[in-house]
């Protein structure tokens, strides 16, 4: 019985090749998009789920109340972990890990020619307890003792292979970190999986920090590094709510409230929330908010709905052509249940073919998606049962959604009318459903189009917005932080300035707009209390202002020097202090850390964006503090970038032969602020394109239905003198009206959601009428192009043949 159903279904598909092709391709496109979204969502929701204690692990994070609200930080003072172990011995485990950023690594060789100089993007310092909290696989060494002693480290397998050629030869070997610390390798980790926020490649013992420049910060409660994480494992009888209340007493005990409005509070953040919370950072710099996951999931569902709607529209459009087949089957004894099964089998067969094609499409597109999102998705249908389950559910769901309505329509034809070709499928409910499906399809498509246009406009705004300084043709070169290297900077500057193509050079802590931010409160004009806000500190030499074209509104730059003898501030800092006239601030003193740095204000500059455009303009203080410089900023002539880089590398290697030379373009560093937004923009472009593609298939189904239903009418109109344009207008006005209706629904929905999305940026566009006009014009134009072929063919048909259709 069922084999006969499949044979009949297969023959029907062969007989109606065009109909089958459109349905298979349409369903495959929708299922492939949904499958790729499923893989992305599955990957993003799997971060650090492999740790056995994942539901008991919490990161301690902090927030500080200021005059403008709360500032959030993923870091805590270094002494927190030690104090927690003493104050709360009932905690199962407490562990510190510190991400120090880039590090210079030297691998000793047999001679000078075999020495390797490498740059690690992320170096970690961790307590041995860290590997009791988290379950990373060890290939060699003891996780409990490997990081107990200072100047010891563990490497990932890939890093050990890179350093020593073979990880099995790495144990006991020595490397040199930042040209200072000799580090002994005491353990090897299996390469960490892609779905973790701990990209561990080189992990040095936390005790080694005592031998670095950070040694003085290890006992300070007032200093917080955003990459200094503390994790705790709570016992089963201790809830996070209860422990949060304890943390209030804990921080008050160890860091009494100072005489200002700034007040640091500590609280727990579950490991399961760490990957999604944009208020805080993660070591991997890959935060994927739950809002994005929800949006992608809805897009996947909507694309699948559009694909199913296409099937319904095309199947009902094909119903008239199959009316005689249905009539003959009924006359020969087929009951309605048998016909429903027959048509459902046809749907299942088409769905199976579509799923096979969708898998092929997904596999082909996966490398592009990985490259776009900079993630590592894998498609392994054998080892990943969730993919099999997804495909099985897709087959069932798509078959039911796509097949039920057409099956009931086709099986319900009156056999007498069917054999006389008097089927019109004119029931109001049927027409309403097809119209509703087209409206739904274009409504979804237009929401995606409008959303994509808003994303593109916001990204263009980011690229073109004035930041308050000149970011063009600036090359940033990280400089060594040791004292011997600092003394060579002036000589290096003089040699670089002799190179043609170099306009200006400045040594500084960071660029005007940078991820590296040093914030602190201060005292103004001999005040007894600290400010109720933090200033963004930009340590830089006197050439900084000329290099970045920063504009003065009062005073001038401070004199050249190695230490702070004068400060330059921006207008926002004066606004926060309540000073209306910049000249009034000149000569007033700023006091940082009880006169550790104490000097007068000598200049006021115009505001600039010290961080990304997500954030408001920050109050900024600049001073000459040579010990804090981390980079050289070089302004070059754009036409001479390559020779300048070549010359700079030679001079650099001559001055610092033991360090690794690298460089970054400032405009690219600023563009990287919005890397995820750009990735999502490209992704939404693809999904909007798929939605339009699928919607056009649905529209083709509608116009096909209309032309079949109105064949004789078109013939009569042509006999009576109607032109081709009149016929095109007759067939096009309905779907054009439906698209306009879809736009009326989609526009306010898209506006609402995009306005919500834009709220995360301080500097943002306002979606104007142009975006919505472009969306409706594009939708109508695409629709006319899609339906034009079918409508023109009907308009050009011989009216004599049209009148003989019955």
What attributes characterize this protein structure?
alpha+beta, 3 domains, six-stranded mixed barrel, globular
Write the layout of secondary structure elements.
Blueprint: H1 2-15, H2 17-44, E1 57-66, E2 69-73, H3 80-87, E3 93-107, E4 116-126, H4 130-133, E5 138-140, E6 152-156, H5 157-164, E7 174-177, E8 181-189, E9 202-205, E10 228-233, H6 240-254, E11 263-270, H7 271-274, H8 290-317, H9 323-331, H10 336-373, H11 385-411, H12 415-419, H13 428-464, E12 474-478, H14 483-486, H15 489-497, E13 502-508, E14 518-520, E15 523-524, E16 535-539, H16 544-547, E17 552-555, E18 567-570, H17 571-577, E19 589-592, E20 597-605, E21 620-623, E22 631-636, H18 641-655, E23 664-665, H19 666-671, H20 675-709, H21 711-719, H22 724-758, H23 769-795, H24 799-803
Parallel strand pairs: 4-9, 6-8, 16-21, 18-20
Antiparallel strand pairs: 1-2, 1-10, 1-11, 3-4, 3-7, 3-10, 5-8, 6-9, 7-8, 12-22, 12-23, 13-22, 14-16, 15-19, 17-20, 18-21, 19-20
Strand content: 15-25%
Overall shape: it is globular
Structural class: alpha+beta
Quickly count the helices.
24
Strand segment tally: 23
Largest sheet: 8 strands, mixed
| Chain-averaged pLDDT | 85
Helicity range of the residues?
40-55%
Alpha carbon gap, first and last residue: 35 Å
Low-pLDDT residue intervals, each spanning 5 or more residues:
425-431
What is the domain total for the residues?
Answer: 3
Please state the CA-atom Rg, rounded to the nearest Å: 34 Å
């Amino acid at each position: 019985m069922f084999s006969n159903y499949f044979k009949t279904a297969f023959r029907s598909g062969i007989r109606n090749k065009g109909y089958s092709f459109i349905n298979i391709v349409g369903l495959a496109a929708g299922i492939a998009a949904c499958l790729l979204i499923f893989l992305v969502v599955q990957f993003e929701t799997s971060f650090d789920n492999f740790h056995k204690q994942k539901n008991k692990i919490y990161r301690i994070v902090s927030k500080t109340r200021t005059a403008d609200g709360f500032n959030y930080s993923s870091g805590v003072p270094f002494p927190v972990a030690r104090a927690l172990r003493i104050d709360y011995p009932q905690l199962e485990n407490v562990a510190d890990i510190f991400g120090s950023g880039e590090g210079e690594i030297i691998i000793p060789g047999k001679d000078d020619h075999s020495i390797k100089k490498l740059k690690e993007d992320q170096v970690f310092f961790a307590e041995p307890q860290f590997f009791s909290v988290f379950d990373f696989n060890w290939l060699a060494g003891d996780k409990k003792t490997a990081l107990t002693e200072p100047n010891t480290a563990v490497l990932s397998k890939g890093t050990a292979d890179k350093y020593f050629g073979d990880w099995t030869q790495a144990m006991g070997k020595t490397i040199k970190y930042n040209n200072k610390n000799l580090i002994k390798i005491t353990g090897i980790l299996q390469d960490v999986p892609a779905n973790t926020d701990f990209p561990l490649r080189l992990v040095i013992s936390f005790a080694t920090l005592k031998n670095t420049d950070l040694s003085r910060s290890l006992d300070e409660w007032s200093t917080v590094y955003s990459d200094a994480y503390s994790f705790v494992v709570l016992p089963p009888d201790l809830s996070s709510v209860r422990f949060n209340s304890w943390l209030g007493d804990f921080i008050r005990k160890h860091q009494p409230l100072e005489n200002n409005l700034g007040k640091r509070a500590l609280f727990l953040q579950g490991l399961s929330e760490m990957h999604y919370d944009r208020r805080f950072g993660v070591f991997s710099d890959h935060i994927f908010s739950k809002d994005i996951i929800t949006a992608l999931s809805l897009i996947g569902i909507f694309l699948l709905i559009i694909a199913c709607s296409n099937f319904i529209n095309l199947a009902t459009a094909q119903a008239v052509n199959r009316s005689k087949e249905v009539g003959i089957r009924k006359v020969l004894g087929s009951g309605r249940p048998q016909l429903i099964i027959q048509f459902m089998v046809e749907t299942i067969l088409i769905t199976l073919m579509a799923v096979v094609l969708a898998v092929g499409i997904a596999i082909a597109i996966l490398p592009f998606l990985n490259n776009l999102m900079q993630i590592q998705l894998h498609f392994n249908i054998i080892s990943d049962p969730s993919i099999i389950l997804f495909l099985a559910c897709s087959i069932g769901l798509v078959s039911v959604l796509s097949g039920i309505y057409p099956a009931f329509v086709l099986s319900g034809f009156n056999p007498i009318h069917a054999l006389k070709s008097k089927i019109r499928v004119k029931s109001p409910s049927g027409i309403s459903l097809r119209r509703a499906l087209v409206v739904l399809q274009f409504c979804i498509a237009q929401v995606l189009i409008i959303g994509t246009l808003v994303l593109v406009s916001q990204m263009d705004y980011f690229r073109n917005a004035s930041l308050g300084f000149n970011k063009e043709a600036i090359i940033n070169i990280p400089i060594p932080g040791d004292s011997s290297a600092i003394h060579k900077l002036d000589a290096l500057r003089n040699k670089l300035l002799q190179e043609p193509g170099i306009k200006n050079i400045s040594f500084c802590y960071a660029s005007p707009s940078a991820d590296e931010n040093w914030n602190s409160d201060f005292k103004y004009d001999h005040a007894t209390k600290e400010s109720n806000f933090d200033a963004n500190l930009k340590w830089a030499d006197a050439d900084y202002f000329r290099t970045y074209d920063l504009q003065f509104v009062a005073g001038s730059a401070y004199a050249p020097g190695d230490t702070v003898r004068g400060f330059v501030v921006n207008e926002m800092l004066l606004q926060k202090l309540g000073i209306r006239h910049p000249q009034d601030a000149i000569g007033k003193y700023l006091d940082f850390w009880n006169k550790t740095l104490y000097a007068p204000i000598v200049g006021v500059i115009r505001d600039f964006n010290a961080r990304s455009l997500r954030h408001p303009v920050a109050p900024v203080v600049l001073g000459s503090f040579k010990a804090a410089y981390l980079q050289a900023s070089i302004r070059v002539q754009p036409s001479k970038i390559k020779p300048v880089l070549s010359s700079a590398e030679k001079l650099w290697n001559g001055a610092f032969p033991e360090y690794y030379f690298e460089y970054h373009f400032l405009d690219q560093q600023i563009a990287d602020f919005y890397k995820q937004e750009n990735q999502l923009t490209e992704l939404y472009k693809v999904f909007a394109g798929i939605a339009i593609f699928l919607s056009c298939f649905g529209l083709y189904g509608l116009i096909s239905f209309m032309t079949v239903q109105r064949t004789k009418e078109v013939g009569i109109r042509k006999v009576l003198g109607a032109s081709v344009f009149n016929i095109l207008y007759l067939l096009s006005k309905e779907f054009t009206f439906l698209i306009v209706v879809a736009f009326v629904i989609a526009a306010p929905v898209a506006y609402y959601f995009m306005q919500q999305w834009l709220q995360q940026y301080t500097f943002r566009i306002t979606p104007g009428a142009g975006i919505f006009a472009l969306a409706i014009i594009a939708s109508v134009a695409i629709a006319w192009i899609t339906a034009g072929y079918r409508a023109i063919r009907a308009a050009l048909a011989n009216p004599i043949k049209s009148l003989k259709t019955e």
